[in-house]
Design goal:
Number of helices: 7
Low-confidence stretches: 194-204
CATH architecture of the largest domain: 2-Layer Sandwich
CATH superfamily of the largest domain: Ribonuclease H-like superfamily/Ribonuclease H
Helix content: 40-55%
Shape: elongated
Order of helices and strands: HHHHEEEHEHEH
Distance between the termini: 35 Å
Number of strands: 5
Number of domains: 2
Structural class: alpha/beta
Strand content: 15-25%
Mean pLDDT: 81
Radius of gyration: 19 Å
CATH topology of the largest domain: Nucleotidyltransferase, domain 5
Length: about 200
C-alpha cells in the first residue's frame, strides 16, 4: 500500500505543517513534556493546547518512523537484549528492548509480565522488523529469556547458528540506555496506555 503524500498527511489541519513537524520533532528529540511545548509555542505567538500536540505525536510519529526506516542503515548482528520495568497508570510493566553493539535500537515491546512468552513475543517482533537475524544475542542471567531463544531456535524461527551468551559487562550498553528511556518517561509522568503489550499476556 502506497504511503500518503506529504500534502495528504497534513490535509485539514488548522496549523501549518512546519509547526506540526517542529512540535513533533522537538518532542521526540528532547526531554520535553507536552506542556513545555505549549509554553514554547505560546512564546512564539501560537496558542496550542497540549492535547493537540499529543494528537500530532500519536498521528505522525509512527508515520515518520516508517519513512525514516527506509533510509536507515541496518542494525548490527550483535544484539544486546534486556528488560526493565516502567509504570503505566500506576501498574508496573516490563519493557523489552534490544540494541546492537553501537547502541542503535533494534526493537522494543511492552508486556505486563516478565516470562518466557513475553520474551518470545519480543524476539519474534524484533526478527520481523530486521533485514537479517542476529549472529549473537547477549542476555543477562534471567533464565526465561535464555529459554525463549532456545525454543525459537528449536522451532526454526531463529537460526541455530545464532550464538547465545550471557554477559553482564556487555549488556551495560542496553542497561545504560534504559536510564535514558526512564528519564524521558519521568518528564512525561509515565505511560498512560498499554498500547504495545504482548497478546500472549493480556491486561486485566
Amino acid at each position: 500500500m502506497r504511503s500518503p503524500s506529504k500534502s495528504d498527511l497534513f490535509k485539514g489541519r488548522h496549523f501549518e505543517q512546519e509547526i506540526i513537524l517542529l512540535c513533533v520533532r522537538w518532542y521526540l528529540r528532547y526531554k520535553l513534556a507536552y506542556r513545555d511545548l505549549v509554553e514554547m509555542m505560546a512564546e512564539r505567538g501560537l496558542p496550542i493546547a497540549h492535547t493537540t500536540i499529543l494528537r500530532w505525536v500519536q498521528r505522525y510519529a509512527p508515520e515518520f518512523d516508517k519513512r525514516w526506516s527506509r533510509f536507515s542503515a541496518a542494525v548490527g548482528t550483535s544484539w544486546r537484549v534486556d528488560e526493565t520495568y516502567v509504570r503505566i497508570r500506576g501498574r508496573w510493566a516490563y519493557l523489552y528492548r534490544a540494541a546492537d553493539a553501537l547502541g542503535k535500537t533494534v526493537d522494543f515491546r511492552l508486556c505486563p509480565r516478565r516470562n518466557v512468552a513475553s520474551a518470545k513475543a519480543f524476539f519474534r517482533k524484533a526478527l520481523r522488523s530486521q533485514r537479517r537475524p542476529p549472529a549473537t544475542i547477549t542476555l543477562d542471567g534471567y533464565a526465561a529469556s535464555h529459554r525463549a531463544v532456545r525454543e525459537l531456535q528449536q522451532q526454526g524461527r531463529l537460526p541455530t547458528l545464532t550464538k547465545l551468551r550471557s554477559s553482564k559487562y556487555l549488556n551495560n550498553l542496553i542497561e545504560q540506555d534504559h536510564r535514558n528511556v526512564k528519564s524521558r518517561l519521568g518528564v512525561n509522568a509515565g505511560l498512560k496506555e498499554p498500547r504495545f503489550c504482548c497478546h500472549e499476556n493480556s491486561w486485566h
